[in-house]
Structures are given as structure tokens and as C-alpha cells.
Design brief:
Distance between the termini: 35 Å
Number of helices: 5
CATH class of the largest domain: Alpha Beta
CATH architecture of the largest domain: Roll
Structural class: alpha+beta
Mean pLDDT: 83
Number of strands: 10
Strand content: 15-25%
Strand order of the largest sheet: 7-6-10-8-9
Largest sheet: 5 strands, mixed
CATH superfamily of the largest domain: Outer membrane lipoprotein wza domain like
Order of helices and strands: HHEEEEHEEEHEEHE
Low-confidence stretches: 1-25, 28-38
Number of domains: 2
Helix content: 10-25%
């Protein structure tokens, strides 16, 4: 009898340690919406291949116009060929074009706006596995896990949402966190909603029945 009780006690300890170990893999407080305000608000859109740019040069309409960013991340304008634009913010690009145009124009003033958003691949958020429509989604400021799941159509009937994983690069290192997507979208537990960041990958496994 004592041996049986000892085995039960040992089993309880093992289960408890397993639970604690799993808990360490959950998202830390620093990645919840309340704590990520600074990072999220500091986000600036980066231009990527496929973006449609409007480059306006003040008082020079003949060299202004709309340009599609090529797959190599460059555009060619009337006066400047093969400008590297991918990975730059519109404001940063405007200043660089002004610098290059200053060879031909006195004190150029340039405005760059983005009309069709694709963004760099490194900025997209990807969902793979048992989502209704697994895909890469363009990151937008304040995007949450709930927004992302709506964009991919939610979970399939075979999904194990509470065993989903978030893969995120933190300080140059890849870190994996546990997600509870079932609790979020099927139980309405908003505490499981988190901010997404550019480059995040969400992996949703199939449930084992």
C-alpha cells in the first residue's frame, strides 16, 4: 500500500513538473498588448517588392509619377535609375531621392506615398498548418492574434489550436511560445489575445483523436 501511495505521489510530482515546464513556454507578459505599446506604436511601414509608389517632385510634374517596386526592390524614375527602395520608409526614401535629384534640380522637394501595400517578406506574418486559409499576411500596426486568425478564416475542424506555436525572433534569436487559439476564438478568452509583430510565424498543428 505504501509503495502504491509512493508511486502515486511520484506521478503527481512528475505531472506538476511537466505543467510547470509547459508554463515556461507560454508568452511572457512583455508580449501582451498592454506591455507592447511602445514597440507597436514605433512601427513604421517598410517598402517592399510589389508596392505601388507615388513619387511627387514639387514643381517638377514631368519627373513625378507612379512606380511599381520591382522584385529586386528597385524602381527607375525619369532622372534616377535603379533606386534601391525596398526596406526603406517612405520618408527615408524621399530624402534619398532628394539627395540624388540635387545633381539636376536646385533644392528638390520630394514626397513618397504608398498606394498598394505588399511590404518586404521579412515583415509579413505567416500562418501555417490547420488554418482555414494558411497564408502570409501583410503586417499592420496593432495587429493582434485575433486579427490574424480572422484574416486566415479561423481554425479548421481538425485543428489543435491550444497546442499552436508562435515563432518569433527576439534579440536576434528564434524563440518559440505556446498559443491558446482555441481558448481565444472558441471560448472568447481575450486574455489569450496578443500583439503580433513583423516576421512572426504561427504554426497550428492537427489534433490527435
Amino acid at each position: 500500500m505504501k509503495a502504491l501511495n509512493w508511486i502515486k505521489g511520484l506521478a503527481s510530482v512528475v505531472i506538476a513538473l511537466h505543467i510547470v515546464g509547459c508554463a515556461n513556454q507560454t508568452l511572457p507578459e512583455a508580449t501582451t498588448r498592454a506591455s507592447l505599446t511602445t514597440d507597436v506604436n514605433d512601427y513604421q511601414y517598410l517598402i517592399g517588392p510589389g508596392d505601388n509608389l507615388t513619387i511627387f517632385v514639387w514643381r517638377n510634374p514631368e519627373i513625378s509619377g507612379s512606380f511599381i517596386v520591382r522584385p529586386d526592390g528597385k524602381v527607375t524614375t525619369a532622372l534616377v535609375e535603379d533606386i534601391e527602395v525596398a526596406g526603406r520608409t517612405p520618408t527615408m526614401l524621399a530624402r534619398e531621392i532628394e539627395e540624388q535629384l540635387s545633381t539636376y534640380i536646385n533644392n528638390p522637394r520630394v514626397t513618397v506615398s504608398v498606394n498598394n501595400f505588399s511590404g518586404p517578406l521579412s515583415e509579413q506574418v505567416r500562418v501555417i498548418g490547420e488554418a482555414t486559409s494558411p497564408s502570409a499576411i501583410n503586417y499592420t500596426q496593432h495587429m493582434t492574434l485575433l486579427d490574424l486568425m480572422i484574416a486566415v478564416g479561423g481554425l479548421t475542424e481538425f485543428a489543435d489550436g491550444n497546442d499552436a506555436k508562435l515563432v518569433r525572433v527576439v534579440n536576434g534569436k528564434q524563440v518559440t511560445y505556446d498559443l491558446s487559439i482555441d481558448d481565444l476564438i472558441r471560448e472568447g478568452d481575450i486574455s489569450k489575445n496578443i500583439d503580433m509583430l513583423p516576421g512572426d510565424i504561427v504554426i497550428i498543428p492537427e489534433a490527435w483523436y
